[in-house]
Amino acid sequence: MSETQCKTHGELIRSRQSGHGMPGELFGRQDVFETDIKVFFHRHWILVGVTADVPEPGDVSVVDIGKASIIIVRDDDENVRTYRNVCRHRGARLKEVGKSTVGMLVCPYHQWTYDLDGSLRHASHMGKDFDSTCRGLMPVHTKIVGTHIFVCLAADPPEDIAKLEETMTPRFAPYDLRNTKIAFEQEIIENGNWKLVIENNRECYHCAGTHPELTASFLPEDFGFCPDTLNEEALRALDEYKARNAACQASWEQDGFVSAPVERLDEDAVTQFRTQQLVIAGNGESQTLSTRVASTRLLGNLQRRDLGDMHLWTHNSWTHVMSDHAVISYIIPLAPDKTLVRSKWLVHADAVEGVDYNVSDLTEVWIATNTQDKHLVEITHEGTQDPAYTPGMFSPFTETYVDQFSRWYAARLSAHGI
């Protein structure tokens, strides 16, 4: 048995050298994976869907997170509710993973029947003294921010979700994201650890060489750069980049769009997030190959097309909102070496496919990017499990957020006594 295999989860992360990657055992061990699920997906706020997943009363979406399962449902009063997917009789699953439409939630085992507000409506053969009022479905702590459905399975969820809500509510407001529909959705399974999926998402060091579709809409300086190696031409380009960013941000702010960066990524944050409004290159409108809008029916009541990319990171999701559409992705770990990535492309609820947009223009950038990232995560996971792997040094110019994620990960484990 190797020295690292003898170390506990906490000892492994504390052994990480500052500015370097994590030990390979943190990506491959089953006990580490199970602790990650318990801490980062059962005790923290996570993104599990969007309101357009359940557009009408009776619509249901079921999501599994480790051994836990939740039901997302829109009730008869148009409220989005979430419950544990556990019958209050003998624990049977009420619904399978996926989407459906119901009048009530009926347990397939003994037909205990629940209203959409979670109350137990019918339970046969239980006698006259049976009190149904205390046997409704178990609710899940839920926050809806914009269209994003965040849940926390802990009894006492982290209170700093309020900071995310306070920050993102005015940023999402002009886009009216609850008045959207899902134009396309994709599920892929990446054969890599969830932390590698997030690390890959936290840097664009790799973007210029691997994401030709995505980089069509990014300014080159947004990938990161090493100031020590810039020549005079590159320095002039950097000044132009800064001037363009400042001009766009001033224009957005003048029109009421909140765009300055906000970061809560350090060790003292429980609910980790970052947001910023990025300038889009080329025609400046949207993340498409043409950099023009993919949908001529803009979100909300927007008139401007050139609103850049308003993005949001959390520890299990990433969001890109443009004037015409939004792309929202979130992850669910399945095994030490398997991670489910769900992506949803949202357009205005009244947008008509084939008239206002076509799906290929809308999705081609991020479908290509997701496919490329899948490969990158998989070859990295394989490499971290090789006996020859030694954690390498992060770039201090382009991978600072990866190092920051590693520090936050360690801090959260420590906070839970690990």
Automatic annotation (TrEMBL):
Pfam families assigned: Rieske, Ring_hydroxyl_A
Cited Gene3D superfamilies: Naphthalene 1,2-dioxygenase Alpha Subunit, Chain A, domain 1, Rieske [2Fe-2S] iron-sulphur domain
Enzyme class: oxidoreductase
Spans annotated as Disordered: 1-22
EC number of this enzyme: 1.14.13.239
Alphabetized PROSITE patterns for the sequence: RIESKE
InterPro entries, per database record: Rieske_2Fe-2S, Rieske_2Fe-2S_sf, Ring_hydroxy_dOase_asu_C_dom, Rng_hydr_dOase-A
Keywords: 2Fe-2S, Iron, Iron-sulfur, Metal-binding, Monooxygenase, Oxidoreductase
Cytoplasm in keyword set: no
Annotated ranges, domain Rieske: 47-151
Keyword Nucleus assigned: no
Cofactor(s) of this protein: Fe cation
Domain of life (superkingdom): Bacteria
Basic and acidic residues bias spans: 1-14
Protein family according to the UniProt entry: Belongs to the bacterial ring-hydroxylating dioxygenase alpha subunit family.
Protein name: Carnitine monooxygenase oxygenase subunit
Source organism of the structure: Paraburkholderia ultramafica
